[in-house]
Fold each of these.
Amino acid sequence: MSENAEAIREICDSIIRRVDRAYVAECGKRNELPKKLWDMWAESGLLSIGLPEEYGGSGGSLSDIVLAMDLLHTEALLLPLAVPNFMSRGPLLKFASEEQKRRYLPPTATGEEFFSFGITEPDAGTNTFKIKTTAIRQPDGTFLLNGGKTYQTAFVESAHCLLVARTQPYDPEDRTKGISLFILDTKLPGISATQMDIGMYLPEKNYTTYFDNVVLPADALVGEEGRGLNILFDSLNSERLLVAAMNVGQADYCINRAAEYAKTRAPFDTPIGAYQSIQHPLARAKTYNESARSMMYLATAKHDRGENIGVEANMVKVLASESFKMAAEIAMTCFGGAGVDVSQDILPFYIAAQNNIVAPVNNQIVLSFIAEKVLGLPKSY
Amino acid sequence: MSENAEAIREICDSIIRRVDRAYVAECGKRNELPKKLWDMWAESGLLSIGLPEEYGGSGGSLSDIVLAMDLLHTEALLLPLAVPNFMSRGPLLKFASEEQKRRYLPPTATGEEFFSFGITEPDAGTNTFKIKTTAIRQPDGTFLLNGGKTYQTAFVESAHCLLVARTQPYDPEDRTKGISLFILDTKLPGISATQMDIGMYLPEKNYTTYFDNVVLPADALVGEEGRGLNILFDSLNSERLLVAAMNVGQADYCINRAAEYAKTRAPFDTPIGAYQSIQHPLARAKTYNESARSMMYLATAKHDRGENIGVEANMVKVLASESFKMAAEIAMTCFGGAGVDVSQDILPFYIAAQNNIVAPVNNQIVLSFIAEKVLGLPKSY
Amino acid sequence: MSENAEAIREICDSIIRRVDRAYVAECGKRNELPKKLWDMWAESGLLSIGLPEEYGGSGGSLSDIVLAMDLLHTEALLLPLAVPNFMSRGPLLKFASEEQKRRYLPPTATGEEFFSFGITEPDAGTNTFKIKTTAIRQPDGTFLLNGGKTYQTAFVESAHCLLVARTQPYDPEDRTKGISLFILDTKLPGISATQMDIGMYLPEKNYTTYFDNVVLPADALVGEEGRGLNILFDSLNSERLLVAAMNVGQADYCINRAAEYAKTRAPFDTPIGAYQSIQHPLARAKTYNESARSMMYLATAKHDRGENIGVEANMVKVLASESFKMAAEIAMTCFGGAGVDVSQDILPFYIAAQNNIVAPVNNQIVLSFIAEKVLGLPKSY
Amino acid sequence: MSENAEAIREICDSIIRRVDRAYVAECGKRNELPKKLWDMWAESGLLSIGLPEEYGGSGGSLSDIVLAMDLLHTEALLLPLAVPNFMSRGPLLKFASEEQKRRYLPPTATGEEFFSFGITEPDAGTNTFKIKTTAIRQPDGTFLLNGGKTYQTAFVESAHCLLVARTQPYDPEDRTKGISLFILDTKLPGISATQMDIGMYLPEKNYTTYFDNVVLPADALVGEEGRGLNILFDSLNSERLLVAAMNVGQADYCINRAAEYAKTRAPFDTPIGAYQSIQHPLARAKTYNESARSMMYLATAKHDRGENIGVEANMVKVLASESFKMAAEIAMTCFGGAGVDVSQDILPFYIAAQNNIVAPVNNQIVLSFIAEKVLGLPKSY
């Protein structure tokens, strides 16, 4: 456990005492950001973790953030927006110009602003090399942006978006070349967005965006032109672990809710928690979740020691999403017919758990990665 | 296959040509009855199957209804309301007075009216003996109804409801006594209903109902007083098979949709349908679904020959719901991140499939039944 | 059910009364043919089913054989040798010369002789096109046989073997050409065999064979030269169903044994069969096994009506092997630590069940077949 | 990692270089102790770990032993006998008299002697309270031993056995009273043993033992009379972790063997390791095994810090046995038909993995423990 662990726990406890799940669930139904929760993250300093003091941060490590995510998600105080907020900083800290850092980083610590992420395109999916959105350098140094993205969380609500685009047109002969990273001002002319109907009860909105001859200033470019994917890949392992923390936290929420229900629900007078078909799957889910959590904290600590955790982070992604699914599934079964009653607040987790099996990266491609890197097996796709 | 099979197929084909899934999906999002589809069921005669001609029916067997349900659900032309419509007739045909039959049955064949079902109560769940809604005989022969129900499909939209209530107050010493069956006029004074938020994208509304000193006329009673559960249990096996047909049909819809998607989706240029992690689960789901379907039609035929199918119908309930879940799950995985995009129309099936594991009867209690009846094992609950 | 079903049942009942499982289990431990059981098959006429009367048979259909296999395997009266015995006749009946038929078929009905099968080679596995055993036509019309086979059941004990060999040397450019079928006299000079150590407690021996310049007479050839695989493929669907019958039968044996054990085993005084973690998996295994059995008999009947059952037979292969595995696994768990005590006679089924997932054809390749043929998905291997 | 980890690794590497799996596999087929391996454990000092120097030990912690078990089992250099050897010391160190310690402990470090364990009885199974073997105190202070045990590993080969027996006859009214622990001289008159037929290819023999009026000297008693179970329970958590190490090690062995096979096996010319139906389950097994291993070492370290690990040790027991099973199962599937060929040396692990699900303690009872202790659910058995 990191030295800050105790402080993080106290902050989270304080938030948990002041915001209840019902509020966040209600935001989820309306796809609205839980402003109250977001503000507490900001005020308590959680948002400033991982950012150096010179940019308004409070220092701290990935372990600290992961711990906070775990604790708050265990109470289902979801704040998925926190992930792109943390994720966007890594690339900026490492690759942005000093001016960009001074301008864009501090507001992410105060919570005044956050970055949305613009990477996914319908035809590309897991294979980012296939994106077709282009930002072509013009003679005057600006870039002309055309194309569009999908699953853009909080795009309209965010002032800026970290955008991945081709600075060379898509070339089927060599798809890897010419992908760059930009800070996009979301209010520029030529940008439009339509809200998607994501059936996940998420406390945030998702958008499909369209870029029609948007003119990006030259200083929108982050890092070296054509090196956008390398910049992003650099922060993938941290993302795996942040997302894992959300999964193990929510898994525990499901297990706890189901266990409470199973103690009192007794259609045949015996509490259903005394039936092994309810009790054993719950205990198994708890066991697997603790195992995923163990490996998650080991990997996070290793990351904070500066070691490579490519394999561990990917394994933890699979483990945490699968234990969340296991937990959400037995919770649904435990609630029986009441599981689909939205007011019971179990259904959102069942849907999220399945989604987290395939997002933000599909477990299948992660397994292929592990098969190749760890077991030396040939490529399967 | 029954002798009517060919005719049923033609009717269903004709409906499939005229109503598309998009319409029903849209109704599902708004929880509205797909009137167009319902009317076609009525006009084509599907609603009149299983009812003797003297009550406006066209004869026909359970096999015919099951076939129609299977065929239409394979195209995801959901009409869940059809189930209570068919289910309500069995008890009426067998136990209602001639007058009740002549008054209530014909409109169920024309589609002008349908019966909602009032049985589930929050504390009772699977154990119907625990219901607490009472309909106490008054000195003038009427019954005074108090209590309430939950998960009442289309209660407000239906003129009548087949209601299960205690005609003797709940007695913890002997909970089995005094349960009776009524035809409830849903517009009687003292009845209120609030819509539930069922997150299933169902083309119908569900309600929680409240009965506050509702006066039921004496002739609302169906069959013998105190014999309500026996009357209902009589039709449970047919319900198992109708529900199974909806499951195997929707399973096929999921498999077909996923297979189509897998043929064209190719983020790494090879269609994902060529990956065994997609292809094999799809083929397994198809295999298990065909197996469930085989047993379903064998059981239906056996039922129509007048033989007891208590064991088979229950087995088929488990099989069909599990193959639906298998199918919906791999379909979600196949669609990847797009699975939770409601506009892709896969998510509703994923949710329905899990629900059908526990509804209208929980597979766990069905497995207990099989364990006891077939394997001679002791009661486990 | 076929018209002979009642007669088959009586024969099997009579055998079951006279041979007990302990005898066959003991043969299994010693890898010896259960001679007593084989003789009863022969005497009772079971071995003559499916063979025309002119060759010593009694007529009858695949349904009859499948029923007998199912009934006898439900009591674990294993006779795996029956499968090659039945399988070898199909090709001979259809493709052998009249002389070959008169000479070789009658002894398979009396049980005096049986055919072993020679097809599997280590490097070829599932892909028969890759076999390298050659039988090259000599100027005098004889064939010179070289190579060897593996997993040859009862080779040494059988007088003849139905052998698949290349009549043209293996050509990597076109591996499909020149595969032929022979009746091999197992006692010819140049043939040697070593017993394999198959850890399955099978009541039969398996061999690796070596053919070193064995001279096959010209009339050893069955059917047309170079058409060997077509001849064999013709009988694959029947084999799928025979093997399925062995699987569903043994699955029931495991379920019944486990259920009996679960009724009396009571380390905490309650019989473990009252625990849902034992009871529900047993009931599920029973449910899935009945479903597999339903589809098996439907497919068998369809086959006997002369219809193509390529898809159904393959689906049934998967279903029956998986329900056997499900049954054997919960039986092992039910027996707890006693499961590995060979004297409890459960372990052999646990091993056989896993083997039957991959043999005689791997479920994975069957799933690929279903994916391609039924769902239209691309080849995955 | 403990401070001795590097030294332990070197010792294990040296053993791995000098003993190959083939030798141990051959011992397994003959149920013989791999003497060569045992001697290396002794000579290298591995057997002396965990024993204070005054009794001939070299100090060291549970972490050291677990690491050694993990490393050696990853190469399938099985030495199951090491477990009772280590397990027997805990109770002796804590509860035996100084004289007993000086007499019995040193030979367990040199490998000259080892303790067998006598606890399991057929009717008791998981519920040790139900054992019926009695050791009744005689007027002269000796104990008269009657009864018998089962699954007694290496009883005949060991000089002494740590035996659990009732010092008060079995009383159905209070089964918990009067269970004591003894050091049994296995050569005493009245003791007989018959070898069991355990189908696990274990490099050791297992026995059923019979005690017929065996006279135990007074000083055979370990610790306080009637406190035998408390003495034993004290060491259960260590046993859970030792056994877990054997499981994760063997899981890796299976995964590595299967991965090697999958790289070269290519019936359709592509290595089967490129098929996702092989590759993904292998990668999943590896992922889950690493997760189990992570939690195992965390729990071991916590144990060595003197903290209670009742929950973690039990969770790790479940996790490690299930990842071993997952690994062994996909290995069998990967080897296809060759899996049951004993000479391929995969089958023994498939059988062991299933056994380890239920032994030395059944995962189901472990799950019940977790459900009660961690989730607060009611007793289910």
Amino acid sequence: MNDENVRRLLVEISYDGSEYSGWQLQPRSSTVQQVLQKTLTKLFAGHPITLQGSSRTDAGVHALGFSASFVTPPEPYISTDQLLNALNRLLPHAIRIHTIQPVPLEFNARYDAKGKAYTYVLNLGREETPFTARYSWLMRQSLDIENMQTAAQFLIGTHDFSSFVVNRKNIPNAIRTIFRVDFNQFDQFLCITFVGNGFLYKMIRCLMGLLEAVGRGSLDPSETGRILAAKNRMMAPKTAPPHGLFLMKVFYNDITMKQFNLKQLPFLM
Amino acid sequence: MNDENVRRLLVEISYDGSEYSGWQLQPRSSTVQQVLQKTLTKLFAGHPITLQGSSRTDAGVHALGFSASFVTPPEPYISTDQLLNALNRLLPHAIRIHTIQPVPLEFNARYDAKGKAYTYVLNLGREETPFTARYSWLMRQSLDIENMQTAAQFLIGTHDFSSFVVNRKNIPNAIRTIFRVDFNQFDQFLCITFVGNGFLYKMIRCLMGLLEAVGRGSLDPSETGRILAAKNRMMAPKTAPPHGLFLMKVFYNDITMKQFNLKQLPFLM
């Protein structure tokens, strides 16, 4: 037994959310945490591994840069390079490991995060293929993107997002800060990226429900402020479906957060 | 009973091959033909519907423009528009119907085809995500694309493709004509499109195995002619995996075939 071998490792993960019931362990369904813990436990000779995730993602939501950390058992010793290769060999293709790096033992993947970026993909192409259907929300009519951008401006800053959360009663407060909302278009896909210090349960999907209603013209962009102020989920439009949403990156320092920029469709990255 | 209602309809279909054991009906696995026939039979009030496909696609191969036809029962009468909407509502997202059009009763989706286009997607980006892994073949090293284009020139024309078919003994002859092999690059994805009058079992995947070996430098492009002339599968490199392959279009007239041109990654179309 060698205590120096006990390390905390931070893992950056991408996964196709269509295949799993979200990140978090659940009794009767397959989740990313479950599959990854099982594989890690196998690699560490049966020593049980528990992952600490940066966030929960719902069933159907995808991830390109989910972060999770765990403490290695004292033995067997496995280098980060060996571990990366072994994991990508053993895991299903729907889960890929991008990086593994040592972090301080007291590191907390959730509480040490400075912020997160999520991208939501809208398909403006009118027709759905089996491929795009998994990774975008199909729009049935044209959208007024300028109005959506106007509405998004109201969301930037520190607000009580009670109008944009599901199960508000389960959390102590709904105050969060959105730093940026970026709009990027690649061919027929409109990508809306939210960068903030943290997001509530289904918050991005609630915000996208609002932006979509504004885009369709069923809601005036100026209503956004009033809906925020109401602090009431009933006042805001419906929740957008999960399959257009990608957790892009969890930031552990402010510089990488400021530099984050979407250059390509998330599912091509 | 109204005989005028008996029509043959041609259906253009896209599907995500990862979800099915290919097109063709099979005893113990889920295939696209099976799912579609079951849905059509339900819509036509239980009258059994049999689909005649333009081709067989292997397990894992995707389609953007697969064609199949069937004869409607005399009743109930369902218009092509109604049928299109009902099918896309009832079918899983992994199967989408693009068009439905009446064709002569004697039309044969397989034998009336003038040609087909297939596109194979190579991922030159070195790293795989869960999304790209489903729809492309990841290259582990850089490719010499010019050499691949040189090799492709040897394949164009009418040849005996016995070196590029699996289960040669099951077919009377292996002579086919390839009209064009187009190379298109979109970001890190190299798309190679084959247009020909017909393709043998696993032929495109065998041809891609050759082009990949040439790209890696393990085979000289000039070897292509010699391998073709050998008419022996053992002489050619290994078969490429199915998940990079897309059946793009089945052509029933020469003009649409000549005009066919890849403008975007197949899984974004």
Amino acid sequence: MQALIGAREMPLYRMMGYHIGWEDRQGNPMSNEPPMRHRGVACLTACSAAGGDVEAAVPAATAVELIESFCQIHDDVQAGNPQRDGRDSVWWAWGPAQAINAGDGLYALARTAILQLRERGVEPAAAFSSLQVLDSASLEVFEGRFEDLEAQERINLSADAWLGMAGRKTGALFGCAMKLGALAASADDSVTDGMATCGRSLGIAFQARDEMRQVWGGPGGQDAAAPDVLNKKKLIPIVHAFEEANLHTKRRLGDIYFKRVLGQEDVPAILTILDELGARDYCESLVQRHRTEALDAASVLPAEGAATVGVFIDTVLKS
Amino acid sequence: MQALIGAREMPLYRMMGYHIGWEDRQGNPMSNEPPMRHRGVACLTACSAAGGDVEAAVPAATAVELIESFCQIHDDVQAGNPQRDGRDSVWWAWGPAQAINAGDGLYALARTAILQLRERGVEPAAAFSSLQVLDSASLEVFEGRFEDLEAQERINLSADAWLGMAGRKTGALFGCAMKLGALAASADDSVTDGMATCGRSLGIAFQARDEMRQVWGGPGGQDAAAPDVLNKKKLIPIVHAFEEANLHTKRRLGDIYFKRVLGQEDVPAILTILDELGARDYCESLVQRHRTEALDAASVLPAEGAATVGVFIDTVLKS
């Protein structure tokens, strides 16, 4: 990622470096702890687990991480998030118009990255398939993001609709990452398909885990509800509650969710309803079900590779 | 374009069909006169002029038109344009967040389009080069759009800086279109390079002609200045005026341009200053110089092909 972005002089690329976390707003290097790059690591892990040389998968891993970064920048504009990872978001620092440009540019760089697969010795057919995989996954991600924005306008969303949306919005890129890793390892179709399924299930489990954390916090709990709760996002615990509530409880939820703006003072009542409806157990079993699906899909690999993928899956779901 | 977008059901694709002009907001077919698709036609013209079968270039022509549409949608969000081609712009109809998604999706579809070159019989090496050409042109377009937004914050921009910006913002995609056409015709390097130069020069001439029209209107003149004049865009006539004005005239221009908002009542004074500084002749000679460069570059083609490209160039510059 640094080779692609760092060498370019134009201020457009400074916005990208800032977002990814190497630079401050003035373009000076920063040495923060880098965030987990789950999708890139998923790609490299799948390549290695399928018996490939991870170096071959680096362009693909770079591409999926650049797409994730691009989506984050556009997401912050779309949702109006002023902050990301404790710093001003790109649109907050440079304005929405330039943030849109920075995101578009990262998407183009993702394409530039994946074209380098051939230079890493990936066979032409696998390199060409990789391009198709990346493009169709990107399109699926935009479909999922479209559904996500549409769902915010609606009061209820079925758990099935949530699953479809999470599969597109998050599962598609994880699935793409792992499939690209297998392609870079010249794996056969059963392995590349298995890795795609594995990544997609992992992505859904990760999304559910992430949304649980926004409601209930991490292992140590949290002081305040995350902005997405107050933004009435269709987080899976809330989706479950709307789906399972009886008429009386639906009315209590409606009293809260029909308010124009939610505040911290509304959160205890929401948490009480979620408790009554067993939302936490429901979400935990959803995570476990997709974790199991991911592990099952990884069983197309030789035992050692499957074990490596298993460790990776649990790292992602615990992080 | 219709084969790629029309067959998809999700409402995301209805925004695209609306923008491109086939559908109304409810998704019902519309039979308006389609707009000129200069970039797509540039690609097909270059292919044919270089002795190729235009059918082979259709995926590439589709890709550049989808990129142009994607840029228009994001541009309308960035500039806050409520209208395009006499209809509500996508963000005005669906909101900026979904408009960003629709643009992102069109970009992904452009990639999907160009991957079909192989199915049209284009050789692997030329198909692979085409991908690289499209990606690096896209990146250049975003660089130019970045500069364009930055320039709006500044009072002056040199004519040289304008030329660099126009080359990136508009020239890059025209150059890419014509180069892709030559690649689809399996032309040799001298021809593909010539077509790239031809398209880039044509793009700059087209941009200058378009900005002249925003100031002075088309052949029949116009009643009111275009929004870009009032938005203090760094249109080439204005750029020339700021560069050529003496101290006294600079002060007159400054009095106008330091206002927070320009109104129609400021336009006569601007037009007077442009007249005094010969801005119209300057811009016309800029157009002619780049037209000549484009024609010269086309002379790498056989005489008949060069003549075809010449007719196309004049069509674009008169449209």
Amino acid sequence: MERYAIGVDIGGTNTDIGIVTSTGECLSRSRIPTQQFSIIDDYVDALSNGIKVLVEQYQPCEVSGVGIGAPNAHFYTGTIDNAPNLPFKGKIFLKKMLEERLSMPVVVTNDANAAAYGELVFGGGRGMSDFIMLTLGTGVGSGIVSGGKVVYGHDGFAGELGHVITFPGGRLCTCGRHGCLEEYASARGIIKNLWELAAQGNYSSPLLEMDKSAVDCIMISNAAAQGDSLAKAVVERTGFVLGLALANAVAVTSPEAIFLMGGPARLHGLLPEIRKSFENHLLTSYKGKVEVRFSELDANNAAIVGAAAMVLAEECK
Amino acid sequence: MERYAIGVDIGGTNTDIGIVTSTGECLSRSRIPTQQFSIIDDYVDALSNGIKVLVEQYQPCEVSGVGIGAPNAHFYTGTIDNAPNLPFKGKIFLKKMLEERLSMPVVVTNDANAAAYGELVFGGGRGMSDFIMLTLGTGVGSGIVSGGKVVYGHDGFAGELGHVITFPGGRLCTCGRHGCLEEYASARGIIKNLWELAAQGNYSSPLLEMDKSAVDCIMISNAAAQGDSLAKAVVERTGFVLGLALANAVAVTSPEAIFLMGGPARLHGLLPEIRKSFENHLLTSYKGKVEVRFSELDANNAAIVGAAAMVLAEECK
């Protein structure tokens, strides 16, 4: 009988639930509105019911367990700790609460680690022992695979490449420190690159005619695709910073490849700029040995499939 | 019968060989002058003979194998690749050559990884799954332990923290890039900190009265111990840079502790300065969770014991 797993992607707005085959196919999915729940017990009841409905739909197939990717989620404790974008405050014992409601094991990790599991089990990381998954979005997250295992570190919070201080004394980050990668390569970091470059150079660009608060990464990408010099400079600057930060990460864990995921990673022309800066910044002994490429997971289901992969991966059996 | 291992520390000047017990005691050691050999076969013959003499001395005890720490040594291939400080050029198939001469397994790794093995098996890292070993000397080396294993990465060259670009556009490094940690925290980096601070400030210090080429880290340490303001500023600056670089490394692998080894690490007053900068630069979620302390290995035998630990460690049986 085929083995399935449930993958759950908890976001601030919605929670997506999917049932995933052992080959990484998401057969069916459902959604519950995270933001409509203020009481955690009600939310976990709804999540548990959503999972049960999917499991029953595919009876008599065997469902091995539930993998959950969530912001500020902790693999070792199975908790979500003070996630700023979720309506539930404090420490949520999600694994325990859900296992009490379901007769199957539950594994919890943060979004970027779940993405790394997805890449390892179903994506471009198949057959690789060492790679880095970088997720670009509202923030910059990462999951690090070393020796075929996702690195959790002592406290379960390894892989915070978004908060490596890339430029000491640089931009103030939401974490309270200065110069973190996230301030240059997340969606908001890229917008900051735009306004910084616009202030420094003498650009004439349609982006400068717009309502400042309306400009987003898609507009920058479209403008870059149309040859806009300011947008192209933003792409170049973003690629320079990402290439530098990724070259530094290589000197720590020496991966075979780096996978990029998330909307901002798809900025028009960004990948070649990252690769150029990356090779320039690599220590000689690593040059030409480390691929930087896009995630091979289907972006629509990547978070669900990655979360399910935690359960389906050999190590989590 | 007690299990012993041979530990070998290959340096540019000398090669030290020791026989090490399963509790990490170095019972006996010998030395061959690396720099007097220009032909690799002659060197490996001498090394092999030195090992045989030690093994015979402790007959009938069982010797499990030979662990070797060497510059530019490669764990996966058992080779030494273009080590600039050794008289043998190109790629040396050391593991293969030595196994042909000895009837026991040989394991080869770089110096800092050997030190990490030593700390893991016999030092402060006993019982820890995740830590970083930082070795300060002519260069800055590191060995990273994650999930109880030394991280080698895809190409066997993981753990080059000395060549993480800490200050983009900073000092020119011997690797040809700019701003590597090594240029601020190795022995030569610390001397550079001295002259940079001396040029920036209005210091009156006995260090400035000396022949510039004669000033070394021991003199700086002694001057700092005597309250010399320039020497103290050098210690503070060095601690600042190390604290920043180590805080960045924590965001990658999330260790429980960081161990420091090597002469420059013992600079008078350096450890408190590192700890201050480290805590200041840590991401909030790691603050107060990661110890920075000195290696617990005996400095006289650390390299030999570390190399032997590779053989004695469970994973290398």
